[in-house]
Amino acid sequence: MNSIISACNINFSYLNVPVLKNIDLSIERANLTFILGANGAGKSTLLKILCGIVRPGTGNVLYNDLDIKKIQRGDLAKKIAYVSQETTFGFPFTVKEVVLLGRSPYIGRFEFERDSDFQIARGAMDLVGISHLENRIVNKISGGERQLVSLARAIAQEPEVMILDEPGTFLDLKHKSTIFSTIKKLTYETGISIVVATHDISSVMNRLGSTILLKDGEIFCSGKSEDVLTEPNLSEIYETDVKIFKNNDNLVITANPLN
Amino acid sequence: MTLKRKLILICFLLSVIWLIVLLFSLSSGTFELTIFKDFNSLSEIDRKVLFGIRLPRILMASIAGGTLAVCGAALQAMFRNPLASPFTLGVSGGASLGALIAIRLGLTQSIIGFSIISVFSFIFSIITILFVYSVSKVSGVVATGRLLLAGVVMNFLFSAFILFIQFFSKFTESLHTLKWIMGSLDIIGFSLVWKTALLSIPACLVLLSMTKDMNIYSLGNDVASSLGLDIRKMELKIYFATSLAAASVISVTGPIGFIGLFIPHILRITIGVDNRILVPCSFLLGASFLTTADTISRTIISPVEIPVGIVTALIGGIFFLWLLIKSKKEVII
Hints:
Oligomer: heterodimer
Number of strands of chain A: 12
CATH topology of chain B: ABC transporter involved in vitamin B12 uptake, BtuC
Order of helices and strands of chain A: EEEHEEHEHHHEHEHEEHHEE
Strand content of chain A: 25-35%
Largest sheet of chain A: 6 strands, mixed
CATH class of chain B: Mainly Alpha
Distance between the termini of chain A: 47 Å
CATH architecture of chain B: Orthogonal Bundle
Number of helices of chain B: 13
CATH superfamily of chain A: P-loop containing nucleotide triphosphate hydrolases
Strand order of the largest sheet of chain A: 6-7-8-3-9-10
Helix content of chain A: 25-40%
Radius of gyration of chain B: 20 Å
CATH topology of chain A: Rossmann fold
CATH class of chain A: Alpha Beta
Strand order of the largest sheet of chain B: 1-2
Largest interface: A-B, 34 and 28 residues
CATH superfamily of chain B: ABC transporter involved in vitamin B12 uptake, BtuC
Largest sheet of chain B: 2 strands, antiparallel
Order of helices and strands of chain B: HHHEEHEEHHHHHHHHH
Radius of gyration of chain A: 19 Å
Distance between the termini of chain B: 31 Å
Number of helices of chain A: 9
């Protein structure tokens, strides 16, 4: 049993427009899986279906061979953490309070956080390097820092699977490298299975883990990242002329419009 | 200090404040009387005034103030917006119109202990909340502008209907309604207090049991449901509980404005945004506040009693102005 999440024959339509078509995939345990695709290819919807917050029109999602629909919400929250593209907060919570919310699946309705919960939250903040922000108001830090807060919240959830929707979007180069090295560490040292939807091809380009390419709501191709991430494949899904250059271990991507 | 300690400490302090307000309020009024003297020296009339008139009124003020403040805090959590309250959402207006229609139709009976007036009031509140919520939500997110506009429009519509009914009422009836519309705690005896408490306290307890969920909910629908929250169930519970609580109060007291808006707001500034502390404290502070406002309303130009709604609206209006001026420097709204 090497796959932790598998989906079979997923179809999903929004307002009668098909968003996802016949998706079959499996997410490997303790591995990194990237989902790439042009805007509107259905990445975000697919992620929400994989973590059980959106029900597919047809098809099933299995977590450890169990139908995700049959797992209690509270139990699922201890197994799968989700980080959305951008989180806005209606109220001035502090960074620490938000990260502690990651502990809520473990806390009863009328209970408060225990010391161990505070320790776990603190550890999560240390890991992504936001400890110095802990008492800041989450609406008043930068968009990039807010994404690190969301990541820390997900880490505090102590999940087996982490599903991240474009975690690098608002980050500068320093924070981006923090986030991707944290993701690598969590996968290969802690053994969490991580699924990342991204536009940021360069971060995938050291060819770790596996990659799923989505095009128009269908899986265009999938497999080991080094096999999937080729000039013809990327050119096809982004509908533009993609070139890959090698610079030491790093790969440089350029895109030219067709014609 | 752990959160639990903080909660207990603040609740204790607020309870002490409430007790002081209660004793002070019992001792003030047109009828010169203080409880700070030998209990046995109280005459028959003194006791009637204290326990037949002042005490029920103070309890009513406490329940009404606490309930409206809790409703405000819960609605703010659900709309993810600090400007939501029974008053700004038009729920008060809806509840008032519902109650007024029942009164005008002469439906003063009760079904299994619940007055038909409260039932009408409840139906109108829940329709208002559902309407305002669906109108102000654009692709899953509540837009502040739409929310306030929808609330204001609903309030205007309900006012128009209320005035229409007023216009065709007899003079004496009309005067009575007018006093009620301005918000009044002028009740005699305990029966209305118990009837209100029977509906509003359970509804408040439901809201109090959801404070942890309210915190999670503030992370947005997707993240909140990934943390195990059943969004639809939570929203439905808040719709029903707040409508029931607000209607049970408003059908007796009339629309008393602004408590639901600024009690949670003041607490958020002073003790933080964690709903597990904010919501229970809102009840206690709301109770003290409305009791104080009512004491002012019945003593300030004694023996004339001005409706308490005027006092809370004045304080609330000034508060709102302050918020507007402050928000220019620091973006709140």
